[in-house]
Amino acid sequence: MKIKAEIKEQYKEIEVHVCNNELSDEVKNVLDKLHTFFDSSISATDEVGNKCMLNPMDVITFYSEGQRVIAMDKDKKYIIQKKLYELEEEYESLCFVRISKSEIVNYKRIKSLDMCLAGTIKVIMKNGYETYTSRRNVSKIKELLLKGKK
């Protein structure tokens, strides 16, 4: 199997070509894996402007900052071209939950909820990132957390 990358300005998005002289089981397997990867992956731009694909399960949070939507994994931030509500609809079946008007988080990455502030609850993620949610979202978050432990 040969793998070749071609980087040119003419390409505005990632293209993958699978070429062979027949539709063999190996070709079908490669196509299945590519579809699985790209159907669930998120197209993003990192902090230096490089295009990349993110696995949604590696994302800790999506949040809006100004007019942009940012995805954060363990240690990096990425700009996403989709709207927050689109990401919520697309990935809520995976493990994302809305915690505020401007943020959705991966509930499998929540370490703890700190209810020390009046009216708001601090959400502490496993990587140390801290954010806040209101009391009205806590029951939904707790329900998902408890369901995830089963």
Layout of secondary structure:
Layout (H helix, E strand, L loop, with lengths): L24 H16 L1 E5 L4 E4 L6 E5 L2 E5 L4 E4 L3 H8 L4 E5 L2 E4 L3 E5 L5 E6 L4 E5 H15 L1
Antiparallel strand pairs: 1-2, 1-5, 3-4, 3-7, 4-5, 6-7, 8-9, 9-10
What does it look like?
The protein is of the alpha+beta class and 150 residues long. Helices cover 26% and strands 32% of the residues. The strands form two sheets. Strands 2-1-5-4-3-7-6 form a seven-stranded antiparallel beta sheet, with helices on both faces. The protein has a three-stranded antiparallel beta sheet with strand order 8-9-10, covered by helices on one side. Strand 1 and strand 2 form a beta hairpin. The longest helix is centred in the N-terminal third of the chain and has 16 residues.
Top keywords for this entry?
single chain, 150 residues, alpha+beta, three-stranded antiparallel β-sheet, 3 helices, 26% helix, 32% strand
